[in-house]
Amino acid sequence: MATKYVKRYSALDRLIHWTIAVTFIILVVTGLGLFEKKLSFLFDLFGGGENAIAIHKYIGLLYFVTALWFSLAHLKDSISFDKDDVAWIKVMGGYLNKKAIVPPMGKYNTGQKIFGIFVLLTTIIFGLTALVIWTPATAAQGLARVSFLLHSLSFVIMITFFVVHVYLGAIGVVGGLEGMIRGEVSEAWAKKYSPKWLSEQKKRGEAG
Question: Residue 110: CB partners within 8 Å, gap ≥ 6?
Fold first, then answer.
């Protein structure tokens, strides 16, 4: 019997998602040199500090636009919480205990929803603080320091979330990465990880 697939992401969604991923990695490499002087040797990868800083600025702008667009486009799914999300948190999604009974999820599980909200909040923080950091001469000294602190703190936390997201997306949830590569997931996968979403898709006639 042929495997049935369900459309999960559009071509535009996938393009934006991978743009966010690539730009974030570039921002991490260029940002580490700015964050810690001992890592300034990373600037050599971009032809020196001046180039690295310029790249960080412009890539940061691209990241801001794409991350903000993706977050807002999927905001409805990210902020939709119910009793199943509470139950998911209690068992930590079954990641720490394979025998745990994981409640049925919608398009995104609770962890992904939290990550999505966090991405939106940090994107806004990155954008606002960057305006101050890159034009310090026009900002009060105290504001510049606070902006740098918030920018750096969000940067460090985001790296942690990013690593966890990549691990769970590529390894922790087998088959999950397929959805963001080809735009489809098997119906069996959807039934296991996103049963409520699959049910909605069937009601709309978008799944078999």
Answer: 81, 84, 85, 88, 89, 93
